[in-house]
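# step 3/5: fold
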Amino acid sequence: MWSICKKELQQFFSNLTGYITIVLFLLVNGLFLFVLPDSNIFDFGYASLDKFFELAPWILLFLVPAITMRTLADEFKGGTFEILQTRPLSRWQIVLGKYFSVLIVLLFVIIPTLIYVFTIKSLSTQGGIDSGGILGSYTGLFLLGAVFAAIGICCSGFTSNAVVAFLISAFACLVLYFGFNALSRLSFFANGADYYIEMLGIDFHYRSISRGVLDSRDVIYFISIIFLFLLITVKNLRKK
């Protein structure tokens, strides 16, 4: 499993793609946080990273599918999946190896944003920020990225075209992240069902963790979604 993970990481960082991914994530967030009007923290007037944690999920929604789109699609396209199956690895080990490689890439993407925390802290007139809320938000952001990674790998396993895998996974991530929230706002569900429909969406649980309270129900939700999509991926590989 770890040999698969290591191979995926070497491929990702063997060219400029991996580094460009990290730089773009930091650049886009930096522009919105410190440069663009109506979204930068200087106009906001408070030492808070709320703007970052509102924007980051939407960037990850496209960034993570771009990272995962080649994980299995290229194996099918290049005919290397048959070779991969001859190795003494189960399908779960193959899938988890690729999945953990994406999680490590996500860490490389998210960890540099800690500079925003130190920047906000230094700009604060009181010299302090809501550390609990920021810790919860980072936890939620990583879990969110982990869910998107599972969805992306699952979608990549259904096609040999990386672009198609990207489009399908980005759409699936969008539906699971915001679709249930939008559906709950329909007047048809205003009789009390709107709350339970909203609970099905990722956005509901991400916002819950971002408040700084680590609820076991939210963690179980994220783990369940991750396991479900990885299970679908393994089942799909067995058919192939």
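# step 4/5: annotate
The first helix runs from residue 2 to 13.
# step 5/5: archive (pending)
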